[in-house]
Amino acid sequence: MSIIKAKIDLAKSIIKNEKVFTLKRLIEILSCSSRTAQVKLKLWDACTSYNQNGKYYTLPEIPVFDAYGLWRFKNVAFSKHGNLKKTIVHLIVTSRAGFNGRQLGEI
Predict the structure, then answer these.
(1) How far is CA 52 from the centre of its chain?
(2) pTM, whole model, 2 decimals?
(3) Res 106: pLDDT
(4) Helix ranges restricted to H, 44-106
(5) Strand ranges (E), the chain
(6) What is the pLDDT of residue 105?
(7) In the beta sheet, which residues pair with residue 35?
(8) Planar angle of CA 9, 19, 34, nearest 5 degrees
(9) Which residues contact residue 56 at a Cβ distance below 8 angstroms, ignoring those fewer than 6 apart?
(10) 19, 39, 55, 57 - which has most CB atoms within 10 Å?
(11) What's the confidence (pLDDT) of residue 73?
(12) 83, 50 in Cβ contact below 8 A?
């Protein structure tokens, strides 16, 4: 096993244990540049939080999404539909009668 592969496997193991992470944390784990960490996020198809200003990430195999396609870990929320705008559009379009603002907030 190459040193690079071992480092990536270790990083994924740490991330799976922590569940969510920031770009800063990934840079720290991989000991790499910001650009390299961003490339890894894209390569891994990492999910971006739809709250917290999209600051948090998780690996796609970690979230267990509910019936609405949402997953929360502590105070960080993720959607399998993408960012907040895409998530709200999806929820409204796929509902039988639509949602009002209060109902969306409760979801």
Answers:
(1) 11
(2) 0.88
(3) 87
(4) 84-94, 101-106
(5) 21-22, 47-48, 56-58, 70-73, 76-79
(6) 84
(7) none
(8) 60
(9) 20, 21, 22, 48, 49, 76, 78
(10) 57
(11) 97
(12) yes
